[in-house]
Amino acid sequence: MADEFTSKLDAYLDGELAAADMKALDAHVRACPACAADVLGRVQMKRAIKTASQRYEPRSEFRAKIERRLKPRAGFPKMFRAWAYAAAVACLLFVVAVAYNYYQRERLAGERLASEIVDLHVAALADPNPVQVPSSDRHTVKPWFQGKIPFTFDLPELQNTGFTLLGGRLTYLDQTAGAELIYQVRKHYISVFIFPQQSSGQTTDLAAKSKHAAFSLQSFTHQGLRYVLISDTGDSDLGRLSDLLKSAQRE
Q: 0.85 exceeded by the pTM?
């Protein structure tokens, strides 16, 4: 593994390299299993550090303080309004804390899901055999998944679109079987993940568009299925492929 590439991997994952360096390092990672494995390990480490640093849990002291505020006291009738106001403020703070905690958990769950999608994409590109059914024919790829996943889907016609279907592979997310389709546009590779929308561990919504490490993600749902597209290409390419996939489901 060349030191000149190793020293740039963190900047590569953070999208901080110049366009020419990103292109050169991207080509190297695709051709070097050792660097691809190193990239995967760094992505997993960044995910773990980020998740640990953003975890939020209200302390037990906070709950005890609220309970003391709400506990009724005898006497001091002139202070009733003040205590009622304090109790209302305490209740409001409690509701805000609970809502904030829920928001934090949902956000972290979304980040974890995005990180796992990135890991699956990187692992596929690092695999010497990235597809289990190598074919550009949608009528060959789609039937291959029958009996392997508990749902079906349609694939679009790609003639004159600039996209090429390279094939597909069986994948798993939170122990749920799904399909991973790999497309190519120019020199970029796009993974399209398809999973049941309401399966275990799949209820957390990803943002329609987001960035994670050096990759762009786009997500949409249709007819009970969740589609997640990921690549190092631009959002416009992911948007065009998303539109093609959506059109295929309406045919």
A: no
